[in-house]
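Risk register update: the risk of archive-format incompatibility is retired. Evidence:
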Amino acid sequence: MKEKDPFDFERFKAEAMQGLYEGKSLSPNDGVLAPLMKHLLESMMDGELENHLNEEKASGNSNRRNGKTKKTVRGLNTGTFELETGRDRSGTFEPKVVPKRQLIITEQLEGHVLSMYAKGMSTRAISEFIREMYAMEISATEISRITESVLPAVNEWRSRPLEAVYPFVFLDCMHIKVRQNGTVESRAIYNILGVGMDGRKDLIGLYSSENEGAKFWLSVLTDLKQRGVEDILIACIDGLKGFPEAICHFALECLH
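Archived output:
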């Protein structure tokens, strides 16, 4: 088996810095958002199915899970990915968040899902987001069951251990559309894309805050340190306010 070529740090550094000089995007997602979208949407549909089976049981119908079906969907920000939906034996289950024949993940749905992953969103806020996503289609019981299905996935991703050293970190802000209080609003989600010592890109954090500044970025850096990050060599920040001040008061020393 042919060995994988080692990561050329100097070459990547030169290309990244050249990209900055040319004004290119600082946050090349390269599909890193797709696994998050897939995991959470599948968790939500699993909660829908569980609620459906409980309602069937309460009505005296004998129904249970019966494997899964797959389809390929595409999102504006997340790209193309495979989505698995649970099936029931009687064939009466109809997923709501991504209906059977829907192949396009709307920008608004992407916004809701990414917002739920962002640190700074409380359990109550996540539950309200789920209520808005389904509008008036589901009961309070089903909202609760879907929230219970979603929270473990969100909390696990938010707190997962990170690598000790990232040669490069790209910090950027995405403005996404979400429905809140009956109206569509634009929300700022700050994303951190890390490049590990092996050259692999990893979305290491999503954060939500109404105020961008040194205090906010200090809380972000503290979170990264608590999850195992010991050093960042170069941080590409694209003019984000407050980050230079925060990094100067933090244990990490890097070029930004």
